[in-house]
Amino acid sequence: MARLGSADQDATSSIAPSKSIYYMNPNETTIAVIGLGYVGLPLAVEFGKIRPVVGFDISKARVEELRSGRDGTLEVEPDDLAAAKYLKYSYAGEDLKDCGMFIVAVPTPIDRAKRPDLTLLEKASEIVGKAMSKGAIVIFESTVYPGCTVEICVPVLERTSGLRFNQDFFVGYSPERINPGDKAHRLTTITKVTSGSTPEAADAVDALYASIVTAGTHKATSIEVAEAAKVIENTQRDLNIALMNELAIIFHKLGLDTRKVLAAAASKWNFLPFAPGLVGGHCIGVDPYYLTHRAQEIGYHPEVILAGRRINDGMGAHVAERVARLMMRRGFPVVGSRVLVLGLTFKENCPDLRNSKVLDVIRGLQENNAVVEVWDPWVDVADARDELGVEVEQTEPPAGRYDAVILAVSHRQFAEMGAAKVREFGRPNAVLFDVKGVFAKHETDGRL
């Protein structure tokens, strides 16, 4: 398979011509879902309602949790878990041997240098390769750069299985569109992009997802097109939020309220409704780096995308600096002060801590020797300690204790408290900074 990149290459190079090839019947084979996190579990559950599925995860604790009927990510309700009567959970590779279709849904993060980290994807490919037999179809949902499925995953599958690509086994790519914590937009109600390495494989992949996705499917012309579509979905959002964040910085210096400016501009029918904020999570704050990595591999330096990333990655430090300045104006020395941060997750109303930029706010204040305490009723205390190194208060903090209070995540519990109640956590004249713009400007001392 030729490496993508030059302008004169066929954009549909991952679709092989039809040959005398053998396919398992997708309707008669057991599905394996590899990775039971925010993406994999909803898939396994939906398919498990109508056909045999093995939900596989390398974490024994995660498998045991799901066997008990509980999902710690809160993405799938107990009733839905119970409704998946054809789904069984496993952490043993031998349980995958009878499967004919494999869906890989493992995290694809970035490393400390902001380069794609494909370690889990390659390990998942090895697990699948050791289990699959002739005629298998392997579908990848993990976010990758264009060309990754064929160039990185397929060789691993060939090496570990001893089978030949597009003769003995086939691959597809169907990018995940899960939005953690969103109870309105669910797996079945979001149009599913599909693709396959041959026309027949593409049809099989599309039909598979069409059996559970009521919103319908969009069959891309190649695996690379589907991969590219995924990374630009979130790159587009990242850039729009970066613009809002830069505007927030400018308007703050001009003495203007950003939210009021945006409300006025939104009166025009085609103004896009984006707002400033901290950009973290497993998608928007990560996916653009997959695209920029691929662009740099082919000799192009993506200036606009990386500029947006720099702005968004710097907003945590910007919030910390603004809070520190407000405190000093009130006569509170930052050194030795006590600051309460409300919320630690990367977004509201979910327990997901991945790539949370609230951590940058905390670190920025700690660098100035402030004592920072965090309260987040959505977070598992052990997860916060293990994943981020942050101690989270297990109960509501006492009133009148803090020199500054930062509303970092707009969990419904905080919004329902109201600004007056949130202020009670602070000492008299303490600073209240609203990162998310939950409260009106006159109720706070600063907001993005």
What's the topology here?
Blueprint: E1 30-34, H1 40-48, E2 53-56, H2 60-67, H3 78-83, E3 87-90, E4 99-104, H4 119-131, E5 137-140, H5 148-161, E6 170-173, E7 192-194, H6 199-210, E8 217-219, H7 223-254, H8 258-265, H9 287-297, H10 303-313, H11 315-329, E9 338-342, H12 358-366, E10 371-375, H13 381-388, E11 392-393, E12 402-407, H14 412-423, E13 426-434, E14 446-447
Parallel strand pairs: 1-2, 1-4, 2-3, 4-5, 5-6, 7-8, 9-10, 9-12, 10-11, 12-13, 13-14
Spans of at least 5 consecutive residues whose pLDDT stays below 50 are 1-13, 17-21
Distance between the termini: 48 Å
Count of individual beta strands: 14
Major sheet details:
6 strands, parallel
Number of helices: 14
Question: Strand content of the residues, in percent?
Answer: 5-15%
Radius of gyration: 24 Å
Overall outline = globular
For the largest sheet, list the strands in their spatial order: 3-2-1-4-5-6
